[in-house]
Design a protein that fits this description.
heterodimer, A: mainly beta, six-stranded mixed beta sheet, four-stranded antiparallel beta sheet, 12 strands, globular, B: mainly beta, seven-stranded mixed beta sheet, 0% helix, 54% strand
């Protein structure tokens, strides 16, 4: 069975600083990987996804993620954080015949200091 | 595009009653819809997968007689929590997988259920 680990429960970063959120997955086949963001009172919003091809994926809001098969990782990065990036971030792996059954990591809460 | 709505956003009910939550894809047809449960400060746990016109597939440990799922059309799925108890209090989130859109799921804003 697939699993996703987000080692960092909380991360505090200063506004304007860079951000990297870690995600490690376990899956026996080629994974479909996703990053979602959940802001208070709002639904999960898709930041980016990886299915195949270029291992560096660009997403919305200035985020990018890099798929590293050798490390079973899909870390999310942003060069310069804005206060509005404070939220909960979830990494997920898609499995099943259609790759659309998602297993989520535990999430990382990002706090942004002024 | 790809907007998913849920109704109600919050509901409070008495123990023993049933509650229905609706999930609608507003601007696309969804071949598959999913229901998740999220406990406070925790991740999302998949409860069930529903395909239009067929029975839902429940994850291990999820009581199908307690959490009734109906996927009546390509834009509507409902979750009914039957004979609700305080331990059913949670945040319920649905998502939808558009047709011809690969494996991406779009999520609703969630429904906060409180059972007194």
């Amino acid at each position: 069975a697939q699993s996703v680990t987000q080692p960092d429960i909380h991360i505090t970063v200063s506004e304007g600083a860079s951000l990297e959120l870690r995600c490690n997955y376990s899956y026996g086949a080629t994974p479909y990987l996703f990053w979602y963001v959940q802001s208070p009172g709002q639904g999960l919003q898709l930041l980016l996804k990886y299915f195949s091809g270029d291992t560096l994926v660009q997403g919305i809001k200035g985020f990018e993620a890099e798929f590293k098969r050798s490390q079973s990782s899909f870390n999310l990065r942003k060069p310069s954080v804005h206060w509005s990036d404070a939220a909960e971030y979830f990494c997920a792996v898609g499995a099943g015949a259609a790759g659309n059954k998602l297993t989520f990591g535990g999430g990382t809460r990002v706090l942004v200091k002024p | 595009g790809a907007v998913v709505s849920q109704h109600p956003s919050r509901v409070i009910c008495k123990s023993g009653t049933s509650v229905k939550i609706e999930c609608r894809s507003l601007d696309f047809q969804a071949t598959t819809m999913f229901w998740y449960r999220q406990f406070p400060k925790q991740s999302l746990m998949l409860m069930a997968t529903s395909n239009e016109g067929s029975k839902a597939t429940y994850e291990q440990g999820v009581e199908k007689d307690k959490f009734l799922i109906n996927h009546a059309s390509l834009t509507l799925s409902t979750l009914t929590v039957t004979s609700a108890h305080p331990e059913d209090s949670s945040f319920y989130i649905c998502s939808a997988n558009p047709r011809l859109a690969g494996y991406t799921q779009y999520f609703g804003p969630g429904t906060r259920l409180t059972v007194l």
